[in-house]
Amino acid sequence: MEAVGKYEFNGAGEDELSFRKGDTLKVLSTEDDWYKAELLGDEGYVPKNYIEMKSPSWFRGNLSRAESEATLMEQDLGSFLIRTSQSAKNEFSLSVRHEEDVQHFKVLRDGKGHYFLWSEKFSSLNSLVDYYRQTSISKSSQIYLRDGSNESKGGYGASMMASPSTAGPGFTAPAANFKKSSFTPPPTLMLKPLQRQAHIDAQMQRQA
């Protein structure tokens, strides 16, 4: 998913990703208080309170395959949702209402981090969705993604708003509360030097 930088962040370590206020980041994982993200081909950890998640209505987080089928069978042809994969961590599945059933597509990623279903590749899930609003996602029939937004081809389809129970952890915009306790490093970074926390504290003081 995507996030926008709320404040400038200058990474102190090799595994931290620097960015500026207003930059759009591709979020790769959302565990703990540090998120792994990508910007212009570079990957690293960023403090979640420095970014604001952009969670579209079609993203349903940890919704299961069975739950997505039950939801979409009540919707119009082309209605869809994207959810986190149940079989692979940090990967996504696209579920789409077809004529008689719901079909599921694994969203693939290449070595450069681009998303794709077939041959066309995209820098973000948002771009992939926008493309298949205007191009049939099915190879055997004309099925366009529809979620009730103005960008949907034909302009109809039920809107599926994410709720706290289905949006998944990490996809609620973080509170702008810059307390020291809000920046606990993820488990893999707990053994980094103490100056890491001092560096973050200094940035918070400058931007408060």
UniProtKB/TrEMBL annotation:
Pfam families linked: SH2 (PF00017), SH3_1 (PF00018)
Keyword annotations: SH2 domain, SH3 domain
Residue ranges of coiled coil: none
Domain named SH2: residues: 58-149
Positions of the SH3 domain: 1-56
InterPro entries (alphabetical): Grb2-like (IPR043539), SH2 (IPR000980), SH2_dom_sf (IPR036860), SH3-like_dom_sf (IPR036028), SH3_domain (IPR001452)
CDD domains xrefs: SH2_Grb2_like
Lineage top rank: taxon: Eukaryota
Protein name: GRB2-related adapter protein 2-like protein
Lineage, uppermost ranks: Eukaryota, Metazoa, Chordata, Craniata, Vertebrata
